Protein 1
Amino acid sequence: MDVVLVGAAGSGTRAVARDLGRRHGWDLVDVDAVLAAHVGAPDTTTGPWTVESGSPRVFIADGALTRTRLRHELYSGRLVAWLDAPPTRLVGRLRAAPPLATLPGPGPLTALGAHGEAMEWYFGAGVRLDATLPTSRLADEVERLLRQAQPSGTLVARADTGVGLLEIGDDIVARGIADALLRLPGERAAILTERRVWADLGDRIASAMRAIDARFDVVIVPPGERAKTLSSQFRTLRELANLRLARRGAIVAVGDDRICDAATYTAGVYLRGVPLVTVPTTTLGQVDLAIGGKGSVNLDLGRNLVGVFHQPTGIVLDVNLLRDEPSRERRAAFAEVLKYALLGDAELFTLIEAAASDAPSRSPIGEADLPEIVERCALAKLRTVLADERDLAGPRVALNLGHTVSHALEAAMDYRLLHGEAVAYGLRTALAIGVEVGITPPALAERGVTVLDQLQLGCDRVEVDVEAVMTRVAADKKRLRGRTRWVLATGSGVAIRSDIPDSLVGQILGRVLRGQTAD
C-alpha cells in the first residue's frame, strides 16, 4: 500500500519518506514539486498519484492539499499520516537551515502557526503522529500502521471545530459515526432516521455501532416536512423517553436536510439537550442545513418559527451518499450553492456555472465537481457560524440571502416546493431588489439569473397569492425593530437593508412568481 505523509514545513515528511525508501526501496514522490513543474498544464491535478504502481510509493504533500479533487485522488486507497508538531518546534528546525536561518523576529513562527491552522482541515484526514519523535521512530510508526487493517472509504478533511468534529469524505458514513460516538461518554445512542434511509444504510451503520460496542435504538420519523411538525416532535420525544435515553446518551440524525433539522430540535429540547451527530444524506443537507446547530419546526404562519440552537458534536459529510440522489433534489440544492457563490466565492461561482451549463445533459448534475462543491459550502457555512454562532445580527445574517422570500413562499404553498426551489425564487427576488436600489451590480445579478435559468429553477409560474406571501414576509423571524431586513448581494459580500419599500418588494415578487423577468 502507498503511503502519504502530510505536514507543514519542518515536520519531517521528507526525512521520514527517505527513511522508508531506504528500508523498502520505495520511490519518493513530492506532490508539490510535481505540480510546480506542470504550472499551466491543462490538468495540474493529474500525476503519478492517479496511476497504480507495482511497488509501493511514499508521497509527501503540503500546499497541494488545498485542491479538493487532487486530495480525493491522492488519499484514496492509501495510508495517510499527519506529522504534527507545535509551530515553535517547526521553526526551530527550519532556522537551522537556509533560508529561515537568516530571518530574524517572529515572522516565521506567526506564518507557520497560521498555515498549520488553515491546513488542519486537510492534514487532519490522516492518522496523527508526533513529529517531534526521531525520524526512525516515525518510520516505525508508519510501518505499524501499515500492518493494521485500514478503515473503509476515503477521508479527505477532518477537523475539530468550535462546534464539533467535522469529517468529509467518500464512503465514510460508518467510520464517521463511530469516530463521533467514541468521543462521547455515553454508550447508547438513538438513531433518528426515516424508513427508506434505514433500509439503505442500516446494515452498515449497525455494523459500525457493534464494532465499537455501542448500544443503539432506531427511531423512525416521518419523511420530509412531516418531520418538522410539533405533533411529530411530540411522538419522537415520547419514544425517546420510553427508551430511557439518558442525558449521557446521543442522538444520531441520518437522513435528508429536513430530518437533520428536526433531529437537531429534538436533541436540543430532550432532557434540555443531549449530544447530537448529524449525517445528512442529501446535497442540500451537506452544503448547508446540517451544519450550524439550528433545529426548527414549522408553524402554519411560517417556516422554522419554533427552534433551538444546539450544535452537533459530530458532522459526517459522506459524498458517496449523494450518488443516487434524485435529479430534482440535487438540482434544487444548487440554489443554496449559488447563494454561497453570490456571497463572494468566485471559484465556487465558476464551478456552479460549469455545472449549470451542462445541467440539461447531466443527471444528476454536478457529479464531477460535487466533492469540491460540498467542501467549499460546508467550510464557508462553518466559518460563518463560528463567527456568529447564535445569529445575533452578525455575519450569520448573510446566510439569509434569498431566504426571506423562500421561507414565506414555502409556508404560503403548504411546502409543495422543495426548499431549494423556493430559495431560487427568493434569490431572483433579492437580486432584482438589489439591482433596483443600486446595491447589487447588474452583471452579478445577470450571472446569478443565468445559472438559475440553466438549472430551470425559479422559472415557472407558481399559483400562489402574492399577498399571502407578503403577509408571511412580514412575519420573518429576522425582522428588526418591526422592519424586514433584506440581505442583498454586493459582489464581495452582502449589504443589509431595512428600508426597502413593501410596494417595491411586492412588485418584483409578483413578476418573479409569475415567471416573468424582473427588468
Protein 2
Amino acid sequence: MKIEITGIELAFDGVEFGLVGSYEKIAGRMRGAVDPSHRLNAGIVNLDKAPRNAARQVEYEVDFCLLKPADPRRGNGRLFYDVLNRGMKLALSGLNDAPASNDPKSAADAGNGFLMRQGYAVLWSAWQGDVAAGEGRMLARLPIGGEPGINRDEFIFNHSHNPARAPLSYPAASLDSSRASLSVRQRERDPRAALPAASWRYLSERQIEITRPPEFDAGAIYEFIYPARDPIVMGLGLAAIRDVVSFFRYDTADEEGRKNPLAAGVAHAYAFGMSQSGRLLRDWLWQGFNQDLNGRRVFDGVMPCLAGSRKTFTNFAFAQPGRFSCQHEDHLTPGDQFPFSYATRSDPPSGRTDGILARCAASNTTPKIMQIDSSGEFWQGRASLVTADEAGRDLELPADVRVYAFAGTQHGGRFATGIFPFCEHPGNPVDMNAGYRALLVAMDEWVSNAVEPPPSSYPRSSEGTLAAHHTLAFPRIPGVSYAAMLNELCVVDYSRQPPQPDSGRKYKVMVPAVDEDGNELAGVRLPEVAVPIGTHTGWNPRRQGFASGDLALLGFFLPFARTAAERQSSGDPRRSLEERYASHEAYVAAIRRAAQALCEARLLLPEDAERSVEAAMRRAKYFGAP
C-alpha cells in the first residue's frame, strides 16, 4: 500500500472541541495492488482478467480523506470509518447533524461536533468504481476486466419530457439496434411491452434517446437490454476498503517509508454506513473482507444502517452498486438474495446454507454488529428477514449481534424528503441521528469495555408486533389509501436477462404491526413517536402521474386534528390532540418523560433528550398557538 498526501489543513476553521482540541484534515490517494492468486482475493469477480503489473498484481487507486485530532494524544484512539455513499460523505450529517458536504472545512461543517467531541479519527476512502467526477465526490480508479456481455439498465424518468435521454451503465459493445431490446411497463408486476426499434436510438455508446409512448406516465419502467463492454472489476473496491483501513489501523508507514498519519494510534476501528453504505457493509462482511491479508480483524464494530436484509450489486460482472431492489424501482437488481440473517442457517427456498457472518466466524474475525433500520426498511428492504425466517418465524440472533428498528421513521430520515417529490403524502420528519449517536457510544463501550449494549429492539412475530402486510390494521384516515403493498421477494434466476423470478419459491416478508393511530407498536420509539402528534409511517405511495399507488422510498407524517370537533367533521378515526393532551405544556412534559426513559435505556444521550424537549416546545402551532 502506498499513500500520497495531497493536502493538510486545519479543519473546521480551527474550532476547538473540548478536551480534544482542534482537528486537521488530510486528503490524498491510496495506491494498492492485490494478488489474484491469494485466497482472500479469490472471490473478486473478473480479478483474474484484469491487467497486471510486473509483480503479477492488479493495481487500483482510491481517494481518501482523514479528519483527526491535531494533537493525536488528545483523541480517543478510535478510527471511525464512514462508508461513502455514491462517493459522498454522510457521517457528519448522520451523527453531527451537519449540512451535507463533501469538503468539510468550515465550523458549520462540524455540525454539533459529536464525533469530534468524542475524539474520533474519521476516515473516508473511495470504493465504487463507477462514480462520476464532480461535486467533490471521492473516486475509486478500478481496472476493467472481463469479456463483453449482456447488460440490463432500467430507467424511471419521473418527469414528462419526451423524447427522454437515458445514460447507459456500461458502453455498448455495438451500436446495432437490432442486438438490443427496449420494453416498458407501468408497474413492476405488469407484463413488459416491447417497444419498436423506431422508438429509440443510440446517441452514443453511453446514451440512448427514447420516444415515450403517451399511454405510460412519468413513473413507468423502461428496461433496456444490450451488448456491453468494459466491465469494471467492481469487487476490487471491497478489497480496497479492507486494505486501506488495515493500513491506517495497523501500519506505521507505507511500503516506500511514508508515515501513516495514524501510526500506532488506533486501538479500535468501527465502520458505519447508511443506505447503500449499510448494504455494502453487510455484503463486505458476508464476502469475508473483515480479515486482512495478515489474518487480522479489520473492524471491531460494524454499524450497517438502513440496509434491511439486502446486500449490494457490487461483486458482479457489469456491476451497478448504485442500484438496489425496491417495490417499484429496480426490483430485480441482484444483491438481495439469501443469506439475509447474521447467523448461519439453511434456507428452504434457495436450498442453500449460509449466513452474513459465516466467513467471519471461520476466520475468527467476527466484529460486534449493530444493525439499525428505519420503518421504511421493512417495506422496501425486507428487514423482517434479518430477524425472521422465510415463513416469518423469529430467529435467534448471534451473541455478537444487536438489531434496532426505529419505529415510525422513514429511509434516510427527514433530510431525504426533498429527494422524492412524487410522493402522495408529506414526508416523515422524524430523525434517527440521535439514535445513531447513542448506539455508537454503546458500541464503543461494548468493544472497549465488554459492557453489554441495550438489548435488541425490533418487531417480533412471537409477540404479535410483526405482521403480514395484507393483514395490517391500518386506520381509515381520510385521504389515505392503504395499498397493502411492499417489496416482495422470491428466488430469482440471474443467469438470464431479464432475470426470472420463481414465484413458487417465495419468502414471507413482514411489516411492523400498528396501533389504532397507524403508529408502530414495537422497536425503539423516539420521543416524538412515543408521544405522537400524528401518524408516522415508513411507507408512502407514489402520487398520480408517477405510477400512483406503488411505493416510494419514503414514509409520511399526517398530524392529528387539533380538536375533537375537527376530527369528527373530517371523519378522522384518530383521537385529536385535545383528547390526548390537556395542553401543549402537558405534551412537552410527556416528551420529557419519554426522553428520560430512553436515556435510562441508553438509547438516547442526555444532550439529545434536551433537544427533544426543545423541539417539542416548538410544536406549539399544532395545539393552536400562534
Protein 3
Amino acid sequence: MNFKKLIKRTVNRNVINRIAIKGIIKSGLKLSTLTAVIFSGEIAAEVSAKQPNIVFIMSDDHAANAVSSYGGRLSTVFKTPNIDRLATEGIRFNGMYANNSICTPSRAAILTGQYSHTNGVKTLDQPLDRKKDNMAKQLQAAGYQTAIVGKWHLKTEPSGFDYYNVLPNQGDYFQPKLKEIGKKWKNGNQGGEIYPGYVTDVITDESIKWLDNRDEDKPFMLMIHHKAPHGLWEPAKRHENFLADVHIPEPDSLYNRGKHGPTDAVIIDGKKGQQFGSSVSRRIEGRGLVTRMMDENWPTGKLKVDSYDWNTVVSAAYQKYLKEYLRTIVAIDENVGRVLDYLDENGLTENTIVIYTSDQGMMLGEHDYYDKRWIYEESIQMPFLVRYPKAHAAGNKSVGKSVAGKTTDELFMNIDIAPSLLDLAGVKIPKSMQGQSFKSALFDPEHAKGRDAIYYRYWLHMTHHYVPAHYGVRTKTHKLSFFYGLPLDSKGAMPAATPPYWEMYDLAKDPYEMNNLYPNEASKSVTAKLKIILSDLKHEIGDNDEDYPSLMAVKAKHWHQ
C-alpha cells in the first residue's frame, strides 16, 4: 500500500509535516520505522509553526439572537447545536460589530479591512474595485490556496481567489445558479449554471468538493458564504413544518417602544410622499412587515388572519416572519455540522481555524422593526465564533490554560477580521487596512484588549426600508447616533432629505435601547463627551463631514442642540 494513503488512514494528517514525511519515504525507511518516528513526536515540533488553514463560514443577516449559544430570547425554542460547537470548543465574541449594516458594504469591509468611505463601497449599488488589496490577495501571495463558494454580492469578479463559484447577486434558494472560475464572468444576475438542490446544501457540497481536490501541500483559506437567512425566506422542503406548533417569543418592544427613536422628528414615507409625525413613523416598519407577509406573491404564501386588531395582526406577521427565517437557519446549522465533520474525518481539525459569522445582524421585531441598517444592537452585532487549532494554541507561550468555551465582551469590528486572519497566518498586515488584529483574544479572551469605541455609518438613505442616513459611536456603555437624513453622494440613496435628529442610549442600564436620553438635561454632559469621541473617531479614520457642504449646514443647526 502507498505510504501516504496508509498514513492518512491511521494518523491525523496535520500532526505530520508533509515535507518531512516525503523525505522519510524517499529514504526508504520501513513502515514500522516511519510510524515510530511519527508517534514519537519528532516531527510534531515542526508542525506547530506551520501556517494554519482557515475555514471562514459566513451567513447573511443571521442575528446573534438566533444563535442559541448567545442565549437570546429565541434560544428557549430554537437551537443551533453545530454552530454552538464552535462556542464550546472555541471562543464566542459578544462585541463584534458591522461598520455599515448592509450586505455589500459589510462584505467589502470584511475583505479589505477598511471602512466604507475608504474602500468605496458605501451602498448596495457600489462595486468593489478589483484592484483593491484584500486579505485573499495577501494570503495568496503568502502561499495559501484561496477559495470562495456561495454569496459574493460585490458585483465585480472576485480577485485574490484561486477558485470561486459564486451566486449571481442574491441567488435563489432552489436550483441556484453559480458562476464558476474559468468561465466568462458576467456582472449582476447574468451568467451561471444551475445546480440542482437547496442553496445551503449546494454551497456546502461545492465547498467540500473543493477541499477534496485542493493541493494538500499548501495551507488554504476557504470562504463558505451562505445566502440564508436573507429574505425572501424559503426553507428547504425538509424544514417546511419546523416550529409549526411553537410560539416564538416576542420582544417586549414589538408593542411597547418606550421612549425609543426620534422625539420630534418627521419621517417621510417615500411611497406615499406624505409626512408623518414620530408616533406614526414608528409604525412604518411594522406595517411594512405586515404588508410583506400579506403579499400575494410571497414565496411561502400570504399571511392569513381573521382579526383586524392591529396587535393581533402584527403578532401573526411576526410569527410567520420568524418561523420562516429560523427554518432557513436550520439548514445552515446542519451544513456547518457537515463541514466540521469533514474536517474531523480528514484529519484537518488540528490545523484549521474555523470561524462562523454573519455579514451583520438583523432586526427580529425589536422596536417593531425588521431588516437591518439601523445602528441598534440587533442590527449591527455580528455573531462571531472562532475555534482556534489546538496544535497552534499549545505552541503559543501566552496560552496558560484552555480557552475552549470562553467569551470576550471586548469591542471589535468587521474591519478587524482581515488583519486578524493575516496576523494568525503569519502575514504582515498592510498599512492600508484600518482594522486591528484580535489575535490576542483567541489566546487570552478574558484579558484581551479591544476597541474603546466603534464607529458606525449607514449611507443608503431611505432606500428600501425608509431608514435615514446616520452615523454614530458605540462605547462599552453608551451609544450616540446622529440621523442627519441626507443622501449626499451615496449611489442608490433616495434624493429627498429627512429632518435630522439625535439619539443617545445608556447601554449599561438600557441594553434594549428603549429610552432615548438625548433630550434629557441630565444627560447633556455624557452626550457632550460622546460627541467628542465621535468627532475624534471621524477625524482619525478620515470620514470628513467637511467634504459635504450640505451636511455641514445640517450640523451647524443641529450639532449643538
